[in-house]
Amino acid sequence: MAKDTFIHRIKKNFFTRSLRHAVLVNSTIFLLFLIIFNLFALWLLAIIIGDKIDRRLVHESDRLKSTIEISGDSLVFISATEIMEPDFKDSTEHPFLLRIYNTRSDLIYESLNHNYFSRLETEIPDSLSKSILLSTESEGSTYRLMLDTINDRNGNVRAVLQLAVFESDIDETREEFLRMNLVVLPFFILLIFILSIFLAKRTYRPLEQIILVAASISASNIKNRVSYDAEPEDILGRLRDTINDLFERLDLQINQISQFTDNASHQLMNPLTAVKSELEYILKKRELPPQQLETIAMVAAQTDKMIEIIRSLLIISRSHKNLITSKAVVSFSKVLNDYIKTSYPGLKFAVENDIYIKGTEEYVRIVAENLIENAIKYSHNDSGGVKVTLIKKGLFAELSVADNGMGIPDSDKEHIFERFYRSKDAEKMGIRGFGLGLSLVKTIVTLAGGTITIEDNKPSGSVFVARFPVIILGD
Ligand code: ADP
Questions:
Q1: Cα separation of 106 and 427, whole Å?
Q2: Strand locations in 394-431, DSSP E?
Q3: Is 166 within 8 Å of 173 (Cβ atoms)?
Q4: Could you write out the DSSP letters of every residue in 321-339?
Q5: Which of the listed residues 305, 369, 377, 378 should we mutate to test ligand 1's pocket, taking the one with most ligand atoms within 8 A of CB?
Q6: Which residues line ligand 1 (CB under 6 A)?
Q7: Concatenated DSSP letters for 340-384?
Q8: How far away, in angstroms, is 422 Cα from ligand 1 center?
């Protein structure tokens, strides 16, 4: 089981589909090249060995002819040293098989070693005027054969010399070559495989660089551009330009949307605050019957929620610019401490003193409120398991809000900071919300130079951890 998971993980993380494809293509090319190279080497080897055999035959034939003299009708060996050499006489490794025929094709001499080897039958051409080399097969063996004329002083052909050697040298070398190939081939295939992975990884390296830069570009960091060094005509250059064009257009559209949200929120905020103060006035005067006052109180509460949403949208679309440029520093410890004591009496909390961060009182409250409200809301309104802590860890202030509620499935964790995202569980359970709270929190945390993460709490629930760079006063 564990092995399966391990292999599966390697396959998923390392041998991704594109890598598998590239390795397959590279390996096939390498293997084809190896096969073609081997066939070529084999062919070349046969030619070289064949040529060596032919030269040996010509050389030996010349030497033999120099020991033969024609006297009248007979041929005489004036020296026996040549034909008495072991290669003509015994069963040696590379024997010469010699026969001499007269012009009527009658055998007139045969080397002694013929007894050791199968008989070689060859047709002697009727009119042989010059030497020829040919390959022939007889009784299961292949021979390379030379037919050469023995001429008298006047140049007339008086006899034919037939000199043969086994061609097994070529076959043996070929077999040896193939055997050697079989031994080294597995190593070669392994080498090819490793080499292919290396090459494929190398090919993708520039892409990884581009992906890294592209991944660092986000809505709040949209001005970044991919700056890979390649000509515009190059495939990587084209990819870089296409991605940069895409971000350029996105930048423009985000700006337009932001502008629109900004304007729309502003337009809505004024009439809504007017409605709210009218409703509050009516409620304060208490001149209407209780039933109507109840309805008005309900409308006032809904108006409050709408104002809250618009306020969030305004902060998300615009206020962050102020946060970035402003030099405002806030005592995280004091604001959080006061806020919890007044808004959530009875809530468990531990806040370290004298922690300062970049931002405003309002932003600290928004972050705390959203995280604490969620923790209570998604614990079925039981604040008993909710705990808020603020500590300083190195150069960071770490705010954590833990609950023992319903928890967040892994598949939701990457989405819950998106604008208007709500989990299916929350919807199913009828827990109310707009999906804006965490998006707002993330915007504020990110713009203060911090990060926010989610961990699973034990035995159940979640822990939201927001880290902000601390400001050391007096710097
Ligand atoms: P809202 O709470 O209005 O739906 P948020 O942006 O605050 O919007 O939260 C987004 C989603 O994240 C919620 O719908 C909910 O599914 C999930 N979530 C947030 N906080 C918690 C928590 N403490 N426990 C479980 N789920 C949570």
A1: 111
A2: 396-402
A3: no
A4: HHHHH---EEEHHHHHHHH
A5: 378
A6: 370, 374-375, 378, 403, 405-406, 408, 416, 421-423, 426, 433-439, 462
A7: HHHHSTT-EEEE-SS-EEES-HHHHHHHHHHHHHHHHHTTTT-GG
A8: 6
Q: How many residues does the chain have?
A: 475
The CA-based dihedral angle spanning residues 128, 114, 49, 82, taken in that order and rounded to the nearest 10 degrees: -80
Full-model pTM: 0.52
Cα distance between residue 421 and residue 405, in whole Å: 19
10-residue averages of pLDDT along the chain (475 residues): 56 72 86 89 87 92 90 83 89 89 86 77 72 83 88 85 84 82 86 87 82 71 77 86 88 81 82 92 88 92 89 71 68 96 94 92 92 94 91 95 94 88 86 87 88 94 96 73
pLDDT score for 2? 47
The distance of Cα 327 from the centroid of its chain, to the nearest Å, equals: 44
Give the closest residue to 378 by CA, choosing from 401, 345, 346: 401
**Strand 387-393 relative to strand 348-351: parallel, antiparallel, unpaired?**
parallel
Residue among 102, 103, 107 at smallest CA distance from 120: 107
Amino acid 1: pLDDT: 44
